[in-house]
Amino acid sequence: MQLENLKNRSLKELAAWLGERGHKPFRARQLYRWMYHRGVESFDAMTDLPKDLRAVLEAEAALPRLIPAHESHSRDGTRKYLFRLPDGETVESVWIPEEGRVTLCISTQVGCAMGCGFCLTAQGGLTRNLEPWEIVEQYLEVRRRTPPETPISNVVMMGMGEPLHNLKGVLPALAHLLDEQGIHLAPRRVTVSTVGLVPQMAELGQAFPKINLAVSLGAATDAAREEIIPMARRWPLDALMAACRAYPLPPRRRIFFEYILIRGLNDSPAQARELVRRLHGVRAKVNLMTMNPIPGAPYQPSEPETVLAFQKVLSDSGIRAFIRKSRGQDILAACGQLRSAQAAGGTLVTPG
Ligand code: SF4
Question: To test the ligand 1 pocket, which listed residue (106, 162, 289, 338) has its Cβ within 8 A of the most ligand atoms?
Fold first, then answer.
């Protein structure tokens, strides 16, 4: 008999499943709290459920877990987890302690179909979408391993994959992360990133209007953007910025624009001025990052003085622009690096 994976069910679906077995809907809320709020891993531990219900769950249902195949600790405090999925594929999550918050970056797909030229994950293409439970379980498993004095405060879907290319997995996962009976993160502490899938941005905004949206812009002109983000041919900047203007942002909130600076491609003062023009009328915060060099790729990170000059053009025009440091470089923390090293049979950095 195939066991039912309860972690792929919404609270409503759990209630229906229990109802079919003669149990009241409030049992679903109890079960859900045990699964997500407390994160227990056995039905036996759910002590306020009646014994007969626990026996049914034990016989018919499962609470699958993801166990890290590797865990690496960086000198800067960053921790990286490589999770092995039931079919043998792997995905990465990164735990990032910062001043006043701890952010967990999780993956939404095995590989990615977007083909971004600055990203190692792009090189192998898309293998498959993650199921909702495989997305949420990254959070639950890292939470189990997190020191109690530094709990995860923020979740970003910026790991492997394009989240909006897997809304079927991402939307139910967001429900578990936000539901007050579940993990119950504040919506402003949850961020979903996209390279600009315009129709799906509207869907996300409609389903979860209070979470943060991050747009990985790539460049401020279509020509430069299309060179590094092939998907951009489908959704050029005019369409993307129109979608950003139409996005249902809560009051006082901004869209985060992630801008990876690549030497000679998108880091000129002219690109910075064009970015200022593009962002006109959008409540925006820009995070500037230099790319991590990728073996064999034709792109190089921008020089530090170029990054500062780019930031100055934005700041002088009244745009909030911050330079983000790359974290965990000694443990291959950038998206796709650890998985790629493992696939190549490379040496993985061990905890230390
Ligand atoms: S940057 Fe993101 S969207 Fe682009 S290929 Fe990498 S994982 Fe996919």
Answer: 162
> Which domains occur in the chain, in start order?
4-62 (1.10.150.530), 68-343 (3.20.20.70)
CB of 195 sitting under 6 A from ligand 1:
yes
Q: Quote the CA–CA distance of 343 and 337 in Å, as a whole number.
A: 10
Where are the strands (E) in 190-281, listed by range?
190-194, 212-216, 255-261
Collapsing DSSP to helix, strand or coil, 68 comes out as strand
Q: Which tokens belong to 179?
A: 């539901």
pLDDT digits (tens, 9 = 90+) for 57-79: 999 999 999 999 999 999 999 99
Query: How much is the pLDDT for 336?
Result: 62
pLDDT in tens, 316-333: 999 999 999 877 767 666
Helices (runs of H) and strands (runs of E) counted in the chain? 11, 14
pTM recorded for the entire structure: 0.93
The residues facing 71 across adjacent strands are: 81
